[in-house]
Amino acid sequence: MTERPNLPETIDNGLAQKDGYGVIIGSLSRANAAAIYDIWSISLRSKDSNMEQDVNILGKASTTAPFVAYDFDYKEKKYSGNLFAYIVPAGEYEFYNYRLFQNRGALSRNWHPEDEFSIPIEVKSGAINYIGEYSATKDYFWEITSNKARDIPLFKARYPNLDWSELIISLPKKSNESSVLIKK
To answer: How buried is 165 (Cβ within 10 angstroms: 0-12 exposed, 13-18 middle, 19+ buried)?
Structure first.
């Protein structure tokens, strides 16, 4: 099976609405192609230097399972992937790194940026913050889009106990990394 990004079985609504904390939700996808990536991940951290909050949103394919055995939450024509959810301290965050990895026996390839970059997002306190879909493309790039029409109903079905009236769409607005494209 694939290694999935964090997606707790349950999220306590009291903890989700706790002052000073927020829930971030979104999806991590990869292009549909025969074993295109074995690992695809994007890293998020707090911009507050006093807070050590670092989240690696990771997808990892099993090298022993056929494609049909992947444990994806959704499969679409272009991308397949998983939902993720994290409870983090509220504040300013940034995506700063990514990794794409392929292993083909004697040949393995690893893609990551030469330098750290900054794609800022804000996590509001006491709210569910939808931060978008992060897709590893077949061209070794990342695309950030809103796929809330697909993702939000999946999250509501998984977490019916949460107060969805406090849902905030908090997509990144700008990227200073040419290999990470924000699509509106």
So the answer is: exposed
Please tell me what DSSP assigns to residue 36.
-
Cβ atoms 81, 132 nearer than 8 A: no
Prediction pTM value: 0.90
Give the count of beta carbons closer than 10 Å to the beta carbon of residue 76: 12
Look at strands 107-111 and 128-136 and give their pairing.
unpaired
Phi and psi at residue 156, in whole multiples of 5°? Answer: -60, -35
| Radius of gyration, CA atoms only, the chain | 16
* Residue among 107, 6, 109 at smallest CA distance from 58: 6
CB atoms within 10 A of CB 34: 5
Scanning the chain, the segments in alpha helix (DSSP H) are 13-16, 148-158
Where is mean pLDDT largest: 62-66, 93-97, 111-115? 93-97
Residue whose C-alpha is closest to residue 121's, from 25, 16, 30: 25
Which residue type sits at 10?
Answer: T
State the DSSP code for 3.
B
Residues 6+ apart with CB under 8 A from 116: 96, 97
Question: Residues 150-160: pLDDT tens digits?
Answer: 999 999 999 99
